Amino acid sequence: MLAYEEIRPPAGNPAKTFAFLHGILGRGANWRSIARGFVQARPDHRALLVDLRRHGDSLEVDGPDTLEAAAADLRSLPGRLDGLLGHSFGGKVALQYAATEPVAELWLIDSNPGPRPDRRGSELIERVLTALRSAPHTVGRRADFVRALMAEGLKEGVARWLAMSLRREGGGFRYPVDLDAIDALLASYFAADLWPVLERTEARAHLVVATRSEVFGPDDRRRARELAARRSNVLVHELDAGHWVHVDAPEALLALLSEGAKGVTPAARSSP
Predict the structure, then answer these.
(1) Is residue 162 part of a domain?
(2) Inter-residue contact 267 to 106 (CB < 8 Å)
(3) Domains in the chain: how many in total?
(4) Model pTM?
(5) Same domain for 76 and 177?
(6) How many other C-beta atoms can be found within 10 angstroms of the C-beta atom of residue 241?
(7) Which of 178, 15, 228, 194 is nearest to 90 (CA)?
(8) How many angstroms separate the CA atoms of 24 and 148, rounded?
(9) Could you tell me if 45 and 12 are in contact, meaning their C-beta atoms sit under 8 angstroms apart?
(10) In a designed cystine with 47, which of 35, 109, 200, 229 is the match (CB 3.0 to 4.6 A)?
């Protein structure tokens, strides 16, 4: 079972469920402020902030550490998922889920559907993993963990973000994430080619491309625009932001999500 937090609108009884899926090394809580704004703008929805396998409070989920398993895990969530938003790794999890399950609405946030064997655009995550392997995983105080990561070359904001995953242990804190499992998830993520899923989905699919990120190369952007020109249910949005769009441009992203209900079509089950 995946861990999740439910966010409901201030009033009413929402009939639809929308899942927010974080990127690698993140957790559902990273999307809490966006989700609160989302359910206020679209009160027919409740939001589920999901901790994907090997992340947050879902560290002990069984099974192989692959993109396919991460998508299959979503079936344990309560109710039918009417919509999914995924950032980076989470975007491909959402798309993999939509390959076999009926979904009305998809949001891929700076998440390239294609393979990236060169891991272009994800250099920061590579540096983060290197720093985490070098830094102590058991510390007396959160500040000690942050300082250790900064000594390995990470910026303070990134180090504090990683410190959100610390767990109390004895008189101190421990970083509990299995980095070998994260490596396996990343390998599966970079290898997967999900353009065919996007090309046949009946969901209303939104590709949010960060213009200051290298996740989408020129050929990827061209392919996305050409697909949007051919299929009315696929839309491409370019935002002036780096890869962490919800941090760099939260208001612009929330504005897009708030308008997302317009033109949403009923989902049809697509073949695997």
Answers:
(1) yes
(2) no
(3) 2
(4) 0.93
(5) no
(6) 22
(7) 194
(8) 21
(9) no
(10) 35
Q: Residues 9, 142: one domain? A: no
Amino acid sitting at position 94: A
The single-letter code of the amino acid at 238 is: E
Q: Which domain holds residue 26?
A: 3-114+192-259
Place of tokens 């999900």: 194
Residue 270 forms part of a structural domain:
no
Q: What is the pLDDT of residues 61-98, one digit of tens each?
A: 999 999 999 999 999 999 899 999 999 999 999 999 99
Do residues 50 and 178 share a domain?
Answer: no
Closest by Cα among 248, 233, 228 to 201? 233
Residue 43 makes CB contacts below 8 A (sequence gap 6+) with: 9, 10, 11, 12, 14
pLDDT of residue 159: 95
Give the model's confidence band at 118: pLDDT under 50 very low, under 70 low, under 90 confident, else very high: very high
Strand pairing category for 3-7 and 45-51: antiparallel
Which string of DSSP letters, residue by residue, matches 209-266? EETT-SSS-HHHHHHHHHHHHH-TTEEEEEES--S-HHHH-HHHHHHHHHHTTTT---
Residue 139, amino acid: V
Strands 83-87 and 105-109: parallel
Q: Are residues 24 and 95 in the same domain?
A: yes
The two structure tokens encoding residue 249: 């441009």
- The DSSP code for 140 is S
Strand partners, 50: 4, 21
pLDDT in tens, 227-241: 999 999 999 999 999
Express each pLDDT in 193-204 by its tens digit: 999 999 999 999
CA separation for the pair 129, 238 (Å, rounded): 28
